[in-house]
Design goal:
Blueprint: H1 5-11, E1 30-40, H2 43-53, E2 57-63, E3 72-77, E4 86-91, E5 106-114, H3 118-127, E6 133-137, E7 140-146, E8 152-158, E9 179-187, H4 191-200, E10 204-209, E11 212-216, E12 225-230, E13 245-253, H5 258-270, E14 280-281, E15 285-291, E16 297-303, H6 331-337
Parallel strand pairs: 1-4, 5-8, 9-12, 13-16
Antiparallel strand pairs: 1-13, 2-3, 3-4, 5-9, 6-7, 7-8, 10-11, 11-12, 14-15, 15-16
Bound molecules: fe (ii) ion.
């Protein structure tokens, strides 16, 4: 975990404070979300949407570590890139392949905001030319809208979320986003999904609201939620990288270490879910990826001890283009292939 004690002292809010013990008294395998990653269109459009419209901090600018490495990997979050506060994107360009919705599609990426702030956000998003829809689900007030690339987002008012915020002159602490809240996954079958969420991943099924079923991990609540929307008529969504959709959702391993990740992989395979990858070095964290019954791609991750501060200071975080040691000798080549961005 990142040492964020300086920020806890300064702000009286919490970083990396999520608990691993759930309300049932069980030790959960996951504390909550680690990061949520989307495939988007243009890099500049994505950067402006997250840092200007939504007011998040740029936490890291690097490239995708898979394939040819010829696309950015952009990270947005709080002051230090704390787990459960991270949104990351792969900008594939405006002409990139589009995602096809269906079972396994994340229809909405929900973010936590303070109670009473949705009026501010409705006005701000409308002013940016983004249409919004206000509604309630699970007793929570939510404002739904879309990223310019088409991906569904929502801001959800949450009481008592003490995660540290990134604030600015335009987005104060009274309204600023505090991190991830939930993902909503469309599924054409809940039976196998329920088994996977409960037995394989150790989540608790806690609530239903019409066609929606909520699962929680760790101490539960905001930042530790997966909601499924059942629609038996759905076909399968596309599985590859496609613009306009969440590509995968990463969950934070409770013990934050390789031993627990190995144990989770063995447990998944032992229960019959063999589609789980070997460990991948993501420089700032280590990951295994697995396909869920609904079709969504999930990830089980543990963080580097220094996290996103391993190559930039807290003050400079997200301001310079960073490459891992194994790609540093390709810096000029990769930079020449990336969309120039006015950061
Ligand atoms: Fe990831």
């Amino acid at each position: 975990m990142v040492d964020t004690s300086i920020y806890i002292q300064q702000d009286g809010c919490y970083s990396s404070a999520r608990q691993a013990v759930d309300p049932r008294g069980h030790m959960s395998q996951f504390r909550g979300h680690h990061h949520i990653t989307l495939a988007v269109g243009g890099a500049q459009q994505d950067y402006d949407f997250h840092t200007k419209t939504l007011g998040l901090r740029s936490v890291k600018k690097t490239v995708i570590f898979a394939g040819s490495n010829e696309a950015y990997h952009l990270y947005y979050g709080d002051k230090v890139g704390t787990e459960s506060q991270l949104i990351t994107t792969f900008p594939l360009g405006s002409g990139g392949p589009r995602a096809r919705a269906g079972s396994g599609h994340v229809t909405h990426l929900d973010l936590s905001v303070p109670v009473g702030s949705l009026g501010f956000w409705q006005e701000r998003l409308t002013g940016a030319g983004i249409a919004t829809t206000a509604m309630s689900r699970f007793g929570e007030d939510r404002l739904e809208f879309h990223h310019p690339c088409g991906a569904g987002y929502a801001l959800v008012e949450v009481q008592d979320d003490r995660r540290c915020q990134w604030t600015s002159d335009e987005v104060s602490g009274a309204v600023a986003i505090r991190g991830t809240h939930a993902i909503t996954v469309a599924t054409n079958d809940l039976t196998e999904t329920d088994f996977h969420m409960s037995v394989v991943m150790g989540f608790a099924a806690t609530k239903t609201d019409g066609a929606f079923a909520r699962y929680e991990t760790g101490s539960g609540g905001t930042g530790a939620l997966v909601d499924y929307e059942l629609n038996t008529a759905l076909g399968q969504r596309s599985w590859g990288l496609g613009v306009g959709a969440v590509h995968h959702t990463a969950f934070w391993l409770s013990d934050n270490n390789a031993e627990q990740q190995d144990a989770f992989k063995a447990h998944s395979e032992g229960t019959g879910y063999m589609d789980i990858s070997e460990r991948k070095d993501r420089n700032y964290f280590q990951s295994v990826y697995f396909r869920t019954p609904a079709g969504s791609l999930f990830e089980a991750a543990f963080s580097d001890p220094k996290g996103f501060l391993k190559d930039e200071s807290p003050e400079q975080l997200g301001t310079t283009f960073q490459l891992p040691p194994w790609l540093e000798d390709r810096r000029a080549e990769l930079m020449s292939k990336l969309e120039p961005i006015n950061f």
